[in-house]
Amino acid sequence: MSKLSSSLGFVVPAISTCKFLAYLTGIPDILIHDQQLISPLTSYFRLQEGLYLFQNGIDPYDGGSFHHSPLLLALFDTMIPTSRLVAYALWCLCDAFAALALVKIWRSRQRVAQSSRDALIASAYLLNPYLLLPSLALSTSTVDNALTLLSLSYACQGNASASLLLLALLVHMSPSSILILAPIILLLLSDPLSHLASPKLFPTGLDRAVPLLFTFIIYMGVLTVASCIAAGNLLWISRSWGSNLMLPDLTPNPGMWWYFFTEMFDHFRPFFLMVFSVHLLIYIAPICIKFQYDPLYAGFLLLGVLGTFKAYPTLADPGLFLSMIALFPEVYPYFRHPIVTALLHIHSALLLPLFNRLWLTQGTGNANFFYASTLVFACSNGAALIDCIWAGLRIAVGEAKEGDHVVQE
Amino acid sequence: MERLLRRFRRGGGDPNATRIRRRQTLVRHLSNRISLINLALFVAAYVWMLVIPFPNLGRFTYIDENALQPGQVTAYFDWGNVHTADLYLADLESLRDLNSTSAERASYITTQFKRLGILAASQAYEFDASVGSLKGVNAYAAFPSPRSPGTEAIVISASWLSRSGNDTLNLRGIATILALADFLKKYSFWAKDLVFVVGDGYLDGMQAWLNAYHSTPQSNLRAEELTLTSGVIWTALHIDYPGHSFSHLGIFHEGVNGRLSNQDLVNSFERIARSSGVPTVLYDHIDWRDNAASRAELEIIPLWVPSFLRDNHDVQTYAFQAKNVLRHVGYQARGKPSGVHGLFHQFRIDSFTIFAVPATGPHGFHAIGRIVESTLRTANNLLERLHASFFFYILTGPYRFLKIGLFLPSAILISVAVMFSGLKIWTDAGWVPDDSPTDSKTNSPQEQWTTRKRPVLSVLRVMVLTHIIGALVFWLITRSVVINSQLLLALIFLGVSTLPIVFVTLFPSPSAAVPTSSVLKAFSLCLASTVISTTAVLNFSLAALLAILLGVPMTSARRIDSVPIKVAVSLVYTSLAFGWLIWPQGELRSAIWNWDILGVWTAPFISIVYAPLMLQSSIVCLS
């Protein structure tokens, strides 16, 4: 890391140290099974279980419980010891790197070496409860988020190779993140500066995207081969990538998918799985076309889509989107109903654990209670997303004169 | 059709312009009348709360789960078993007269169980709480089910002390348990293990036993591990029989943290008792119309009520049901269990207390034995846990209740009103009348308004700080030095009373133009509304209480100019926030005891959520 402003140099280590101390108080043991903080795909507990099976010569993908990428398996098997302390340090580091990457993105967007807002942006990431709690629960979504932000930050600096490699890693671990491939390529072809207020056509021809796409495909291919070697067979493809599409594990999570598919008749299942998966993809083109002048903003919006609609979300996914709002202060005056969105989020943040508890601990509620709270959560994420889309478009119209109104046709 | 549409889009041409105009008109109408709407919401909510005990609201109870089949069996408990109970009672009375220790009592009870051929053991425990320490010895026995592998169990329990207070002993309750153990083991139809527990003390013994049974460590509890265990406990009946005989059987159903037992279980018991010829009541509230001796109960209707109303049947029913509802709210809002059964609720076990209301007659061991036997056989019928959403209700009488939809909206309406006022203040804070001279061209008859910045971060900082102070106060009052000293509590109260002034001097408004106080009020109103509406599902009584305490006071807090008045008003708010530190004394002690021993979160909730919200109102007045 280059020169850090003094307050940033204080904030990140201080918060990370506090977090490491929090790990030592035994909080992870309380949170590690919380359904809002970890999903079957991001559970540290399941990762350890898979690792144990792997080290004892049993194929972890043979059962139905392990959905992590073979890369993680190989990493923890060879390089990183599996002690809890190491994991705590690793997760703290991931969050610190992610926060620094966020600051880097901010700096390159503003084209400054450092700014007074740096520490604020880092704390917006490190202290966001939606990110802090999954990280304390050792959810691997923390790693995913760090990869996302690092990839975006390299893309902002124009480092195509590093950015695409990190993206390939990310897609390997969480395939639905393929959504941000398009904005990252656009970002590499243009610049991260804010053009929201002055829309223009995309500066260069798209033919330059082809080599970037090829680079990405080659990285993906290499990682896939590496995964096959690590796992020893091809079963991991259906168990790890496939679970994002086939939804084999219906453990409740704060997302929208699980309840639908617990209620669904089996013969409709493939159709609706297809609908739900394709639904994620249909946002790419419209958002990238509309925001072609500011691909970073497009990527940010797609992360919001992902946080709301992906198959196995944890609180960390919408949390990433919410923390990234800190990067775009220019749109704040144009938010339509920020307080309503904030209140919706407070409501859902209280209702999610409450209804989860009513259903599973206290036994006075049932699955519908928790599902209702996930719907409120989806509404609040949707409200935040719509607010950001509106503000991002509205800024281009400029300051309204007295008595003027902007409408959408 | 076309004409109609055109009329609808009055103003002609551009549909967008029409839409904007229409929306503006709507918003203007609504925001001009927002205080009226709020008033209407408040009035509706308070009236609704008053209407809850209304005789014609709600419905008769019914059995939802068909498997229960209450009262469909022949009870076999007979006079021979009553004699056994009498013999046990004589032994227990001599133990009482000898001033025997906990260990002696427990060893007597385990010996009796063992003589019946049932495996029995005892468990010593000691609580180390900030209010004082407690110790005792529990006795328990497990009778394995003859018909199943023992994966599920039913608990029949009694505690040494009765719930009626004054150190009344529950000797007849324990004698009933022993006689039942002797009787129930002779039958082969039990599909669930029967676990008999005699807890020492009142709540403490059962808490220690349940914690050990479920292996949930509690930091201030030292208890022996249980040597006998059984399966998952589905149901628990707690028997409390303090008097010589009883006239009615009372039902106590509120658990820790306001959880209620499944209504089906309570209803089944009520059916069984009534069909066995024993009248049931809620708590120990005997309806004076059933019983001439309890005419004194009529006292709940104030004397100034004219006699034609006092003698009116519906008014009397209303008063009686209001008494029941108030008792329920008293338990639920405090999160306090209404009896030993309430501890089972922490572990997802449906349970209630059968309270034999002391009287000179006519019922005794025979009636309670048969009714408990029949209730156990009903619980034994269950193939799956009682589920359905039969956990949200208010019993207005032993066989009348309100469903959630009939009482929940009352608290929610207040929360909506509070939210509306918060949002209105937030919007208003963003605008300021424009004083600058307007040029003649745009000189319209309307007032000119300009936007201004609202200080969000500094207000959030104040709010977070008040909640941290609430947490600090909570930490302080859970220290045993503090809770046992009136003086220190008074000092803490004095300390927090100066807080609003400290806040106002530490974080002054940068200038009069910055609406800090309005924004603080808006945010704390929004937070209060959120807290009320989310609590409503968990614990309606607490939400209703919060709605009453926070609703009108917080919405009417405003910035006052006169210094003496604003100091006085802010002191009133501070006393509303932290007054419980000094008055009533017993309430705080019992809340802390409940938190220490039973994990009731009312005390932390009040000090970390409620009190800081009031403190924020106090700051609003002062700034």
TrEMBL record, chain A:
The keyword Transmembrane is annotated on this UniProt entry: yes
GO terms classed as biological process: attachment of GPI anchor to protein; GPI anchor biosynthetic process
Protein's cellular compartments: Endoplasmic reticulum membrane
Pathway info: Glycolipid biosynthesis; glycosylphosphatidylinositol-anchor biosynthesis
Keywords: Endoplasmic reticulum, GPI-anchor biosynthesis, Membrane, Transmembrane, Transmembrane helix
Annotated transmembrane regions: 85-107, 119-140, 160-189, 210-237, 271-289, 296-315, 335-355, 367-393
Chief site of localization: endoplasmic reticulum
Superkingdom in the source lineage: Eukaryota
Membrane-related topology note: Multi-pass membrane protein
GO cellular component, one term: GPI-anchor transamidase complex
InterPro entries from the UniProt entry: PIG-U
Family: Belongs to the PIGU family.
Protein name as annotated: PIG-U-domain-containing protein
Automatic annotation (TrEMBL), chain B:
Protein's name in the database: Gaa1-domain-containing protein
Keywords attached to this entry: Membrane, Transmembrane, Transmembrane helix
One of the record's GO cellular component terms: GPI-anchor transamidase complex
Top-rank taxon, per record: Eukaryota
GO biological process: attachment of GPI anchor to protein
Chain ranges passing through the membrane: 30-51, 406-426, 459-478, 487-507, 527-551, 563-583, 595-615
UniProt keyword Transmembrane helix present: yes
InterPro entries assigned to the protein according to its UniProt record, in alphabetical order: Gaa1
Name of one Pfam family that matches: Gaa1
